[in-house]
Write a structure and sequence with these properties.
CATH architecture of chain B: 3-Layer(aba) Sandwich
Largest sheet of chain A: 8 strands, mixed
Distance between the termini of chain B: 37 Å
Strand content of chain A: 15-25%
Strand content of chain B: 15-25%
CATH class of chain B: Alpha Beta
Strand order of the largest sheet of chain B: 2-1-3-4-6-5-8-7
Number of strands of chain A: 16
Largest interface: A-B, 44 and 43 residues
Mean pLDDT of chain A: 97
Number of helices of chain A: 13
Low-confidence stretches of chain A: none
CATH class of the largest domain in chain A: Alpha Beta
Order of helices and strands of chain B: HEHEHEHHEHEHEHHEEH
Oligomer: heterodimer
Chain lengths: ~375, ~280
């Protein structure tokens, strides 16, 4: 379906990533947001709280992030598209409900504008340190989807992607911005509503009594239902059968947990968004995401001017990790530099996926600033020698 | 099933899930029995009734009622129910959970839901202990009572639940024991028909853990205690209804007040400030 023309702010705007993210969520059909103020994400909910009263939406500022991260799931089971918004420390508090969203297959969007940690860390300064938290933060085995935009335009565009993926795959979807991208001002073109593709929630048409909320009828996702449709549904964070009833035995656990994993991993290629530039025959390929990928683009330009053969692989989809892509790139370049604003998170994935075929180098940053282009060029020269 | 007398509670239950997990002598089932009758009396359409629970023995209620029901995480039934109530303003949202879930781990959410006057009914089964995990101390375990983590008797002061929710602005506050089935049913009916945040404390036996450790006999003996030491005092000042170890119990409907709900307040304020630009909030259409 297309976006609602009454809600879409069509035109060319000069706004920051946080506001663009809020507009993207609105365009995607989000009409309920539960959040708690935290730097550097607060502008997202501030913008939402100004816009929603004019759109029939509702923002509620909850008492903490724990409450926010389950309040919006209540609204989703009530039938709304909804999200929560936070930054590192808040995301840490939300983790139990990431697990709840995973096991109850709630189409949920968690916006995370990253800052430097651990703990309170550097609240106003950027980092990319929640990559592994988003992937592994809640206990147990489950899969998530995570996207990292790298411009205000992408904050708008991919906020819509995030909502669409949540509906398609019924899992937690993380929208992993960082302080730089959240506060970066830039031109954002918001298209006409009829140019915006929105995935509507697919409610079951099966009558009560002939419907089980966690049974696969067609495809590989169960059919969604909402409170008030008359199906007397039950959801639980306990291991459950197709009816949604607790069934605490290893067989049910095995069936459920493998299905929750495979429904994402079987579609890694479709979910994966990336850009590959001049990788074939390069001496080194830089792997980067978010704001770091922006700097990498410029650094690669500088290095190529000096005659160096450098490829660039920008990941927009961080999770599920695209092993196949990394292996293919590894066949066509001589080494990797993984650049990220942490002391090495995604580098482990690149090492794992490339199976040590070629050297994998880390260009790290403890957080609080970006990796400068000159630092990139120096590292490229070191690696290429 | 014509001709076969049917238990009036059966309509509410997911009978395929019976038997339930509750111990003999536990009062949670009795409270659910009252709840089923209250739903009949309040004329609640099951399609528009949603039950949300946290974790624990009382948290299992959501799993047994044959309506849209959500078994959430420990302490977080109220924020989930808040989102659900926002999406479905025409529905009756009931949070059914225990004293530990609602007042220890979930205490922050409870006070804010009452302050905001979210349209929901909270039924708190208070059995003075964490049953599911083996009888640990809770914020309602009476002074001197033993618990698995208070082997020498509880030395902490307790919450007076009606007083706490009263102070936070709840529009209806009552306390009964599971001996008072008719009164409890009537208060549940009233709460279901009262818009805004209503709260009922239900004192219940826990023979397996709380009573065994405190040498208080079986479920019947606890009900005997409830019967003998309870005084009905409707409209009592909630500051005066604190509970002690096997002491006197004040029961009744303590608070009835009118306050606009969260959504009413939102719509009123936005209408005033934004006028025609405001699109009144209606939840899911």
């Amino acid at each position: 379906m297309k976006a609602d023309p009454k809600a879409v702010n069509t035109g060319t705007h000069f706004i920051d990533g946080n506001e663009a993210c809020a507009e993207g969520a609105i365009a995607a059909g989000c009409r309920f947001v539960a959040g708690y103020p935290i730097t550097p994400s607060t502008e997202v909910v501030e913008h939402i709280s100004r816009r929603f009263p004019r759109l029939g939406g509702l923002f509620i500022q909850m008492e903490d992030e724990i409450a926010s991260s389950i309040c919006f799931q209540g609204a989703i089971w009530g039938g709304l598209k909804a999200m929560t918004v936070t930054s590192g420390p808040g995301l840490s508090l939300m983790m139990e409900h990431v697990g709840l969203a995973a096991i109850t297959e709630t189409p949920s969007v968690f916006v995370d504008v990253q800052r430097a940690g651990p703990s309170t860390g550097l609240p106003t300064l950027p980092a990319q340190q929640d990559i592994m938290q988003a992937r592994w933060g809640s206990h147990g085995d489950y899969e998530v989807i995570a996207l990292a935009p790298n411009s205000p335009q992408e904050c708008f565009d991919h906020a819509i992607t995030a909502f669409n993926l949540a509906e398609q795959y019924r899992c937690p979807v993380f929208f992993m911005m960082d302080e730089c991208i959240g506060h970066m001002l830039g031109k954002v073109k918001i298209p006409a509503a009829d140019q915006i593709e929105v995935v509507a929630r697919k409610f079951t048409s099966r009558p009560a009594g002939e419907f089980e909320p966690f049974r696969i009828y067609d495809g590989d996702q169960p059919e969604m239902v909402r409170a008030g449709m008359g199906h007397a549904i039950h959801t639980t964070g306990l291991t459950h059968d197709e009816r949604g009833y607790p069934a605490m035995n290893p067989q049910t656990q095995d069936t459920l947990i493998r299905r929750l994993r495979n429904k994402i991993l079987d579609h890694t290629d479709e979910i994966s968004i990336y850009e590959a530039d001049q990788i074939d025959g390069s001496d080194v390929t830089i792997v980067a995401y978010g704001v770091t990928a922006r700097v990498a683009e410029y650094a690669v330009h500088l290095a190529r001017k000096e005659g160096l053969k450098v490829g660039l692989l920008r990941l927009t989809t961080l999770w599920p990790f695209n092993d196949r892509l990394i292996r293919e790139v590894a066949d066509n370049t001589k080494s990797f530099i993984v650049a990220e604003m942490n002391l090495g998170q995604m580098v482990h994935e690149v090492e794992r996926a490339s199976r040590s075929k070629i050297p994998v180098h880390l260009l790290d940053h403890a957080g609080g600033g970006i990796i400068e282009p000159e630092t990139f060029v120096k590292k490229i020269k070191e690696v290429v020698r | 099933m014509s001709g076969t007398p049917q238990n009036p509670v059966e309509k509410l239950l997911r009978t395929e899930r019976m038997p339930h997990i509750w111990c003999p002598g536990c009062g949670i089932g009795t409270s659910v029995n009252c709840f089923a009758r209250a739903l009949e009396q309040a004329n609640i359409d099951y399609k528009n009734l949603h039950v949300v629970s946290g974790i624990g023995c009382s948290g299992r209620v959501a799993g047994y009622v044959n309506v849209d029901s959500f078994h959430t995480t420990h302490g977080r039934a109220i924020p989930f129910a808040t989102g659900l109530a926002m999406a479905r303003p025409e529905a009756k949202v009931v949070v059914y959970s225990g004293d530990g879930d609602l007042f220890a781990i979930g205490g922050n959410h409870l006070i804010h839901a009452a302050r905001r006057n979210i349209d929901m009914t909270v039924i708190c089964v208070n059995n003075f202990t964490y049953g599911m995990t083996g009888g640990q101390v809770t914020p309602t375990t009476p002074y001197s009572a033993k618990a698995s983590t208070m082997p020498y008797g509880n030395f902490e002061d307790t919450f007076n639940l009606p007083n706490l929710v009263d102070a936070c602005g709840a529009v209806f506050v009552a306390r009964w024991t599971i001996y008072h089935v008719r009164q409890l049913t009537r208060s549940m009916t009233k709460a279901l028909n009262t818009p805004g945040f209503s709260f009922i404390e239900v004192l219940s036996p826990c023979p397996t853990l709380y009573q065994r450790r405190n040498k208080l006999g079986d479920g019947v003996m606890m009900v005997q205690y409830f019967k003998e030491r309870s005084t009905i005092e409707n409209g009592a000042n909630t500051a005066d209804v604190a509970l002690g170890f096997q002491g006197d119990i004040v029961v009744g409907e303590f608070v009835e007040r009118e306050r606009p709900t969260f959504i009413q307040n939102y719509n009123t304020r936005m209408e005033q400030v934004l006028g025609d630009a405001f699109v009144p909030y209606e939840g899911v259409k």
